[in-house]
Design brief:
single chain; 125 residues; mainly alpha; Cytochrome Bc1 Complex, Chain D, domain 2; 7 helices; elongated
């Protein structure tokens, strides 16, 4: 059957409409399910970062010693992963492990969101 004939066939058009509706509905549901994963609170992260400032600096860019990493401008996913690893014991550090132990998943998301939104180290060449 020629393509033009398929495009005007009522059954084919109904099937195409149904498939389009299913696709749009599925896409909306996936997006709605993903939103809570990114429901981080910048202000809460800033407030919780006060404990971090003692070593990493107020915005995560002024570490007190060269072996303490800069947090400002790091990727959200990296910060979240690192904090969860410290909390679980998968990553061990005498300072960070006890700091991360009491953090909830929400605390970690908030902190990761806050620090990932700070300006990072900029090197000019």
């Amino acid at each position: 059957m020629p393509t033009a004939a398929l495009a005007s066939d009522p059954e084919t058009l109904d099937l195409a409409r149904t498939m389009n509706k299913s696709f749009v509905t599925s896409a909306c549901l996936m997006l709605a399910a993903a939103v809570p994963a990114f429901a981080a609170d910048y202000a809460a992260g800033k407030e919780k970062s006060a404990a971090c400032a003692a070593c990493h600096g107020a915005d995560g860019n002024k570490p007190i010693t060269p072996d303490i990493p800069r947090l400002g401008g790091q990727y959200y996913d990296y910060l979240e992963h690192a904090l969860k690893a410290y909390r679980s014991g998968g990553r061990d550090n005498a300072m960070m492990t006890p700091m991360a132990k009491p953090l909830t998943d929400k605390d970690i998301k908030d902190l990761a969101w806050y620090f990932s939104r700070q300006s990072g180290l900029i090197t000019k060449y």
